[in-house]
């Protein structure tokens, strides 16, 4: 028996109605994946499966915390997660992924593995910039912090004087400011 099978749904015994499944996503779950995106967490997944003759709709609600490393200080911290996702599974001639949230399976398929989907939903919900909570409100606390970034290839000391004649090729670009 595979370790992943505890995150599979047995489709053969499901009637045409709404079903509810619960999964605990802890150390055993994250050990299934050799990806450094998320390695630790304590999450609870509620999955509502609505089965009809032609399609199954799976509504995921994943809540809990994952352990992340701060990009600034390298301190570890717990990031709260509250994820709502939907996966559509339709029946067809062959098994394939039609879209990010649409799968096609054959009617003879016995089980639907959810482990990779759960892991992907967690990974997609992670913030791009992983900041420890003590740094997250830092920009709000400092009213002098710049509100927009200005990129330049020339140092600030080397700013052009208004009296200096401009290169005619760049004159049109100056008017954009």
Q: How would you explain this protein's 3D organization?
A:
The structure is a single chain. This protein is α+β, with helices and mostly antiparallel strands. It has one domain (4-134). Helices cover 17% and strands 37% of the residues. The chain has helices at 27-30, 115-125, 133-136, 138-141, 168-174, and strands at residues 8-10, 18-25, 40-51, 55-69, 76-91, 96-99, 102-105, 111-113. The strands form 2 sheets. It has a 6-stranded mixed β-sheet with strand order 2-3-4-5-7-6. It has a two-stranded antiparallel ribbon with strand order 1-8. A hairpin with a 2-residue loop joins strand 6 and strand 7. It is extended, with a radius of gyration of 25 Å. Pfam families: YceD. InterPro entries: YceD. This is DNA-binding protein. It comes from Hymenobacter glacialis. Residues 168-177 have a biased composition (Low complexity).
Give the arrangement of secondary structure elements:
Elements lengths: L7 E3 L7 E8 L1 H4 L9 E12 L3 E15 L6 E16 L4 E4 L2 E4 L5 E3 L1 H11 L7 H4 L1 H4 L26 H7 L3
Keywords, separated by commas or semicolons:
single chain, YceD, six-stranded mixed β-sheet, 177 residues, extended, 17% helix, 5 helices, alpha+beta, DNA-binding protein
Large-scale geometry: extended
Order of helices and strands: EEHEEEEEEHHHH
Uncertain runs: none
Fraction of residues in β-strands: 35-45%
**Class from helix and strand fractions:** alpha+beta
Write down how many β-strands occur, each being a DSSP E stretch of 2 or more residues. 8
Q: What profile does the largest beta sheet have?
A: 6 strands, mixed
Please state the average pLDDT score: 85
- First-last Cα distance: 65 Å
Please tell me how large the radius of gyration is. 25 Å
Binned, the helix content reads: 10-25%
Q: Number of folding domains?
A: 1
In spatial order, strands of the major sheet run 2-3-4-5-7-6
**Count of helix runs:** 5
Assembly category: single chain
């Amino acid at each position: 028996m595979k370790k992943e099978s505890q995150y599979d749904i047995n489709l053969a015994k499901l009637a045409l109605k709404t079903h509810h499944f619960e999964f605990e996503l802890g150390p055993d779950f994250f050990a299934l994946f050799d990806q450094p995106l998320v390695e630790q967490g304590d999450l609870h997944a509620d999955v509502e499966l609505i089965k009809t003759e032609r399609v199954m709709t799976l509504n995921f609600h994943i809540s809990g915390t994952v352990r992340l490393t701060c990009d600034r200080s390298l301190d570890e911290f717990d990031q709260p997660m509250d994820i709502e996702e939907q996966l559509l599974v339709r029946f067809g001639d062959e098994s394939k992924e039609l879209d990010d949230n649409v799968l096609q399976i054959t009617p003879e398929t016995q089980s639907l593995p959810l482990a990779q989907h759960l892991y992907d939903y967690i990974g997609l919900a992670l913030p791009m910039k992983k900041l420890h909570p003590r740094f997250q409100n830092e920009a709000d606390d400092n009213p002098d912090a710049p509100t927009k970034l200005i990129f330049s290839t020339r140092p600030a000391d080397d700013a052009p004087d208004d009296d200096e004649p401009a290169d005619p090729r760049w004159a049109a670009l100056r008017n954009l400011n």
